Amino acid sequence: MEAEDVSRLIARRAAQDVQDGMVVNLGIGIPTLVADLVPADREIIYHSENGLIGFGPAPEKGREDPDLINASKDPVTLLAGAAVCDSLTAFSMMRGGHIDLALMGAYQVSADGSLANWTLGREGVPPGVGGAMDLAVGSRNLWALMNHSDKNGAPRIVRELTLPITTQRRVTRIYTEKAVIDVTPSGLVARERFCPVEELVASTGAPLDVSGV
Amino acid sequence: MIDKTRRAFADMVDCIEDGQTILVSGFGESGVPNRLIHALVARRPRDLVVVSNNAGSTAAGLGALLAAGCVRKMVCSYPRSRGSVAFEELYKAGRIELELVPQGTLVERLRAGGAGIGAFYTPTAAGTLLAEGKEQREFDGRPHVLEMPIRGDVALVRAHKADRWGNLVYRAAMRNFATVMVAAAKTTLAEVDEIVPLGGIDSDAVHTPSVFVDRVVC
User: Is A167 on the interface with B (CB under 8 A)?
Assistant: First the structure.
């Protein structure tokens, strides 16, 4: 499967769990795709860190407004009911616990739900954090959407992070192309799997309870 | 009579000196005062400290200021936008200093700077590399990091409309950092799409009251 299709598959599964009426922030990467895949009968308020509350899909070609972009810097539209605010207000929403759900891309998630998603720590490459740490620290629920393995085939779900941590908060749910996994006090528990169980266990770098799938 | 309008962009930026800290509004390419920045590039200042969310995302604007070698240090949350070529080259060559700040902490530090707050604690970045060397303290059982205000010598912002008193109105997502930066600098310069007569902006609709603005150009 093409990488793009895999991303869409992950986003589509996560979109099923976004509930009507939620205020949701979609991080850069796979989460951005979720907006188009949530069932149409659900009304969701999408929050963008640059001050758009209730933004909608990309405009038709030629109708882009350079001053109307989302956190990924892609052109968007405003839905009826949308509000515009400054970054201070947008981040008060994030840090103050007013966002129901944050969907974030991730480089790694560990057995206890610790998240690494802001830097690969490469020499000579400037790190970028953006709003990741603010969102992770303040949103009521935090889900990670990522490919099950990295480009070299190494597991992204690991016993302990080897990349710099983003927050002391924990991810509660992980969506990959191979499984939906909950982070529980007793460890990682697979809720759904989309591949043979042996493959799932072999490609996961931390203990995973597969008794229910 | 109060008239903060200027006819030329060059007359706007003549107050900027070498080594100053310049706050620049914008997120990606939205709300970036590119014409003010280009007027600044023409003055070839040196050793500037620039505070902005990104480090230029095209060859224009901040990208041009960086490429011209005017910036000693960049304070930002995300210098890795598509097209942040000038910054990435300077960084790789070790010719620019980077202070990476989480975006919410950046905006709150600017707010503190503009509001006369001495410092503040936030849970953002606690326990991460970005909290290293900073005081950490628990409140309500959660670790917090002590963060200091950011104050600038000059703020460059972009807005949609202004009047001659310097009241500002923004449109769409161009507001972003401008509303805090205008207060956090000693001198604030605003580039706008349109200057309207006094009274042409409904008082209830003003986003940035005139008090925070020193010069306006269209």
Answer: yes
pLDDT in tens, B76-124: 999 988 888 999 999 999 999 999 999 999 999 999 999 999 999 999 9
Instruction: Assess if residue B64 is contained within a domain.
Output: yes
> H-helix or E-strand containing B145?
strand B142-147
Question: What is the residue range of B193's domain?
Answer: 5-117+150-217
Q: Which residue has the higher pLDDT, A28 or A193?
A: A193
Domains in chain B, number = 1
**B53 contacts B78 by C-beta, under 8 angstroms:** yes
| B78 and A CB contact within 8 Å | yes
For chain A, domain boundaries: 3-48+86-209
- Which fold, A3-48+86-209? Glutaconate Coenzyme A-transferase (3.40.1080)
Which residues of A fall within a CB distance of 8 Å from B91? 124, 126
Does A1 score more than 80 pLDDT?
Answer: no
Q: Which residues of A touch B31 (CB under 8 A)?
A: 67
Residue in chain B closest to A124 (alpha carbons) equals B92
pLDDT digits 0-9 by tens, A33-66: 999 899 999 999 999 999 999 999 999 999 999 9
Domain membership flag for residue B60: yes
**Chain A CB within 8 Å of residue B212 CB:** no
Under 8 Å between Cβ of B173 and B146: no
Sign of CA dihedral B110, B113, B116, B119: positive
Which are the contacts of A26, defined by CB distance < 8 A and separation ≥ 6? Answer: A32, A34, A35, A46, A71, A103
| Dihedral pair phi/psi, residue A31, rounded to 5° | -55, -30
B133 is a domain residue: no
Inform me whether the C-beta atom of residue A168 falls under 8 Å from chain B C-beta atoms. Answer: yes
To the question of pTM greater than 0.90 for the whole model, the response is yes
Q: Which residues of B touch A91 (CB under 8 A)?
A: 103-104, 107-108
CATH code, B70: 3.40.1080.10
ipTM of this predicted structure: 0.96
Q: Is B186 contained in some domain?
A: yes
